[in-house]
Amino acid sequence: xxxxxxxxxxxxxxxxxxxxxxxxxxxxxxxxxxxxxxxxxxxxxxxxxxxxxxxxxxxxxxxxxxxxxxxxxxxxxxxxxxxxxxxxxxxx
Length: 92
Ligand code: SF4
Description:
Layout: E1 13-15, E2 18-21, E3 24-26, E4 39-42, E5 45-48, H1 54-59, H2 67-77, H3 81-90
Antiparallel strand pairs: 1-2, 2-3, 4-5
Iron/sulfur cluster binds at residues 29, 33, 36, 38-39, 48, 50-51, 54, 57, 63, 65-66.
């Protein structure tokens, strides 16, 4: 069964400056957002349901809500160099 999407842009309107949703003017996602679970389509564009201006979210570094990047960082962060070294030597 398909998971129900509770984050669609119901009631949004397209304006000359972008999409207007809940009083926020939203800009389309940027290339770094590709693959993030917070991306939702509206008409012929993709938008972020957490931030109206994805480009500014990335301006200061990695977006802290990016679901596609978090997984990568977590996996890397769990590697303990000392344990990894011990594991490597046991395998010899
Ligand atoms: S949460 Fe961050 S990475 Fe994901 S779509 Fe929004 S701005 Fe882009």
